[in-house]
Amino acid sequence: MKRNSLMNIIRKWKNYILPSPIGEGLGVRLLLLTCLLTSCGEFWELETKDVGEKGTMTLQRKIVSIVVGDGYKVPVTITPSELATNAVFWLSENNDVAFIRNDSIIGQSEGIARVVAFSTLSQLRDTCYAYVMPSMEVLTGTYPYDMVIYANVTVHGKKLTAETAKDISVVAFVGEQVRGIGQMRKHKDKEYMELRVWGPAPSSEEEVAIRCYFKKEAKLEVFDVDLTFDGEQHGTLSKPLELVLDEKSKEYVPVIEEDDEEFQGEQEDQFKVVDNGEDDE
Known about the structure:
By secondary structure, the chain is of the alpha+beta class. The protein has 5 helices and 20 strands.
């Protein structure tokens, strides 16, 4: 096996963990850890003594959907329990899209970034993807035409109200572009949602997807409704459209295009720092 010290590993990952002052916190922690471990000898030698039976690491979320500027800390499960106290470090493949701050994934710009979590003391790792959406704002001047939806919104058995909608957004997408954001309204003591969707032509026939963004959970779920942009009104105050999320509703998973082979090869090289078997010839 190639005997890489932790310092060599950090140097290989420097473009991921130290791209800007934002990432310096993690970088400093890793560098301090390097000094401690390298003072005791090669990192792989120290690990061979302590690893024992290999455990597993599981990230509880595989897709983290966040808006630019928002952040989320992914829960991690490590088994067996005696390994759960090991420090977990995070690396973003693309800091221009999502970076790490205080062990949380922070949205930087629109796009998708792969994030790797690893435990140095037990050579465990898992990955997830950060799907970063644009700010939940619609520039009404961008498109000259609109269609409007009047709806009752029910989220997992509870009707959405102005009070319960504080951390929940109902959003209209065309592709990955935000075209409308629902606003809670009230008419004669009756609350409803008005969702105005903007488009480039009176009837562009673009497919409109309605999704629910849960800010605290960093998750998007899909309303099972088929709409196209037609410049018309859907639903009325007396008979609003019913938008429902329930146990059958699916989480939105974006299309992920990546060069798995190239990045996986890099990962395998970086994380082969422990070997309980024979050295490679």
